[in-house]
């Protein structure tokens, strides 16, 4: 990518571009299920007054974040695998990397999962004052804080990339744009980019993981003080979906970090699979986990399916 050239090339299956179409249909189905799952969650929460509670408001934020991440990555991933069209303008690549990093930060590194851990702590520690402590105004302020923090930390990334000149290959490692991936192609000094990335990780990921750990230590301490074993298990069961959401996000993130850092000897296909899992699997699994582990949502989905089945029989 010579100085002044304004195009990157995204890739699908490294060295096997002729087989990209094999991945196209599974990825399309995956994205369709992601959209269906998250939109269903939002619809159920919006149309059921009984679900207008703090836990479900935070779940709505998580679903919106997952939809945003889906819409940010879907166009380039499907164009690469389905149409073998991997060329993307520099400004388009920068815009995509901003939204990917910001939405991932909003979901985990800067807020929603942290807010949901706090929500579970309040619900278990002080259930009688749960709704008053987490009123609609408080949730709105938390939501604004989550958005602001996520976008503020990612705001410098486009400018840090834009100032660089590129004189190496213009081929990126994935079918979407990431700051660290584009940075490696620069022939200019990238120490500022590396330093800011490290600061952002320390102020978001490490801090928020610590907050989540402390929240669950306090939750466990509270649960163990409950005399009734049945009530103890019931309280812990309310945290299962949230713990699953944490694992669904952080396990792929740790996996792709380890593969990039220590897996240079691995097949490029492994890197490709980890990259797609990193951005595509969490938004897909979150609505399914909450549908299975949350009785209220599960019951609403069953009611919708039963109603459609009944109407189908009636029409025949």
Largest sheet: 2 strands, antiparallel
Q: How much helical structure, as a percent, in the residues? A: over 70%
Structural domains: how many: 1
Molecular shape: globular
Q: Please give the radius of gyration in angstroms.
A: 22 Å
Numbering strands along the chain, what is their spatial order in the largest sheet? 1-2
Strand fraction: under 5%
- CATH class category: Mainly Alpha
CATH-wise, what's the superfamily?
Rhodopsin 7-helix transmembrane proteins
**How many beta-strand runs?**
2
CATH topology: the name is Rhopdopsin 7-helix transmembrane proteins
Report low-confidence residues grouped into runs of 5 or more.
none
Just name the CATH architecture.
Up-down Bundle
- Average pLDDT, to the nearest integer? 83
Element pattern in H and E: EHHEHHHHHHHHHHH
Determine the structural class based on helices, strands and strand pairing: mainly alpha
How far do the termini sit from each other? 62 Å
Subcellular location: Cell membrane; Membrane
Membrane topology: Multi-pass membrane protein
Transmembrane segments: 22-45, 57-78, 98-118, 138-161, 194-219, 240-263, 269-290
Family: Belongs to the G-protein coupled receptor 1 family.
